[in-house]
Amino acid sequence: MTETVNNTVLKSGSFGKWDYLKITILVFATTGLWQSVHSIILPIRILDFVPESEKNTYLGLLTFSGLILAMLLQPVFGAISDSSAFRMGRRRPFIIIGVLCMLLFLPGIGLAGGYAILFAVYCLMQISSNAVQGAHQGFIPDLVPEGKKGAASGVKSFMEMLGGVSLIYIISIFMGNYSAGGDKQWLWLSLAIPGAVLIICMLATVITVKEEPGDRGKHLSMSQIVANTFKIDIRMNRGFIWFLASRLCVFAALGIIQQFALYFLRDVVGVADPAAATARFTILAVTGMLIVVYPAGRLSDKIGRKSIAVTSAFIGAAGILLIIVSKEYSVILAAAGLIGIALGGFTSANWAMACDMVCKGEEARYLGIANMATAGAGALARLIGPVIDFFENQSTGSGYQVMLITCLALFLIGALILIRMKAKVNQEA
Question: pLDDT for 338-384, tens place per residue?
Fold first, then answer.
């Protein structure tokens, strides 16, 4: 079977095991960096600037603002890369420039002398990162033959999970030392390690991935590209709209747990070392993800995407229910495994579903819009910070109970939306 994707002709048999790694290794680095920043570095660093009683509010508003930028800009960068005509390809120039900008802004987290500076640095990093992601995610629809996109989505998700867990434990140790009154060198080490991994993976990507030059026959102006970025015919793409809604709900639930886990474990569970406890929670969750993420992607090529995504959302709901019922740390760790399995299965099947739905020639734009739901979910998750603080000020523990009930509802709503989806996509059973 031969598939023509833009200017690149791929034969199914010519896409081998190493090709999966080449087109996905960059997400190992970007996820490792953002997982460390969101779960450990920012929650601890922000305590240098804001009152203890308002930490959830300030953290939520900081990350909410950055993710709104991500939600708006990632489809734009994707659309620009779709229409670019660089000799080295449509995607790699954006990857190079975006990563270099991320590395330029990353030290600002350590240099910031106040909340406003930290806020600005975080937003600049989000802009740079979404230039990278907007272009990079076009690799799967560009380069992967039909029948292998589920597997490729599984590998992509596997690399994301591996990147998230590989750095977080060592970063938690360094930031634990920093928060305990240690020297600022621990903060600098926490920033330097993800930065080094990022530059290595960027170089590996741009050297090993071969793209055809962009189509010089396209003559869209920048204003035309931006104006057309968010245009979708709702009547013709109703299934895609429902897909976005389900993705928004499930990833919002996951984002809430990720962002506020450290404060929950400290304030409600009462662990002695919140940074280390959060790292163990994350590592167990990612272990669950790693076990299922690639098999789920492969299986979705055979039996369809929807059934795997729906089952995964229900498993996530079961994990949250365990935490609601028992606040014992050992039970919470078991729930982390279930949540990880849910995320692994959902991420693979859901991203493969997105790759099935893209329009030829607009791959990165459509996937950027799909990731609007991811960024929007992250932004929505951060907005619960003020809600937590409000209820906590009324009654200790009630804010986090509201948080957990919200997560449970979002998982269930996401599953029900997918069940009701009637639109068929490629590979759908």
Answer: 999 998 899 888 878 877 776 666 666 777 777 777 777 877 777 78
Alpha-carbon span 388 to 397, nearest angstrom? 9
- In degrees rounded to 5, what are phi and psi of residue 5? -120, 105
257 is a domain residue: yes
- Which residue has 């930065």 as its token pair? 195
User: Residue 137's domain spans which residues?
Assistant: 15-215+222-420
pTM of the full structure = 0.69
**Number of domains into which the chain is organized:** 1
298 is written with which tokens?
């492969």
Nearest alpha carbon to residue 118 among 132, 130, 106, 102: 106
- The CATH number assigned to the domain holding 395 equals 1.20.1250.20
Task: Return d(Cα 150, Cα 186) in angstroms, integer.
Answer: 40
Other Cβ atoms within 10 Å of 71 Cβ, number: 23
